[in-house]
Amino acid sequence: MIDVKRAEELFRILAEVTDQPLYEESARIELSATLANTALEIARSVRILCSADQLLGATVCLRSQFESLVRSVWTLHCASENEIKRLSIKSLTAETAQGAKNIPLAAKMLKDLEEIPSLRNLMVALNEFKGSAWRPLNSFVHAGLHAVVHTKFGWPPELVDQTFRMSNGLCVLAFTQIGLLNGTPGVQGEIIALAASFSSVLPKYRDST
Fold first, then answer.
1. What value does the mean pLDDT take over residues 38-44?
2. Does some domain include residue 15?
3. Are 177 and 29 in contact (CB under 8 A)?
């Protein structure tokens, strides 16, 4: 049984830690923060859907959550000024939507991020998620075999738990990103320490043997 209340308690604590102004009022920083908050907002839908045993919708949201987080990090470190401009629109129109069409997809963003040494630890987490979850998530999004089989035969409880935990793990990374954008001293270590007490709602460590 997933423990939504425990997850919400973790995120309440992390929100308090990261509730600070952005360290710089630039389009790049503001866009990265917006995307990190988008990931957190999508995660709320994942929790609601998991608790309602609506895993098909939860998995679709989980992929969107992952892509929002990746784009937040990529925006901060890799996006060109022109790409930042095209994504930092004031209103959504047919013209502005067309202008943002050539922004790289998640796979290219991850490849770009691999070139940044300071992101090595983050990339371990992002690549592990992509390596283990990306293919089945794509199947769910595109109504492929995973969606057909699980809709017909039901959702194993362990799959619901795994989806819930993965989403929560991405939330921790999103809060870390927000903390970095706020310039909060030592925020990464503080978040890791706080999250350590919430292992019941976070991804399980893999056995390396």
1. 98
2. no
3. no
Q: At what angle do helices 106-113 and 120-141 cross, to 10 degrees?
A: 170
Rg of the Cα atoms in the chain? 17
Residue 50 is assigned to a structural domain of this protein: yes
Q: Assess contact for 160 and 55: CB atoms under 8 A.
A: yes
pLDDT band at 206 (very low <50, low <70, confident <90, very high): low
CA distance 159 to 179: 30
Domain containing 49 equals 21-201
| CA geometry: angle 125, 73, 56, nearest 5 deg | 60
Q: Whose CA is closest to 18, among 199, 175, 171? A: 175
Q: Assess if residue 101 is contained within a domain.
A: yes
**Does 151 reside within a domain?**
yes
- d(C-alpha 114, C-alpha 176), whole Å: 18
User: How many domains does the chain fold into?
Assistant: 1
- Tell me the residue type at 118: S
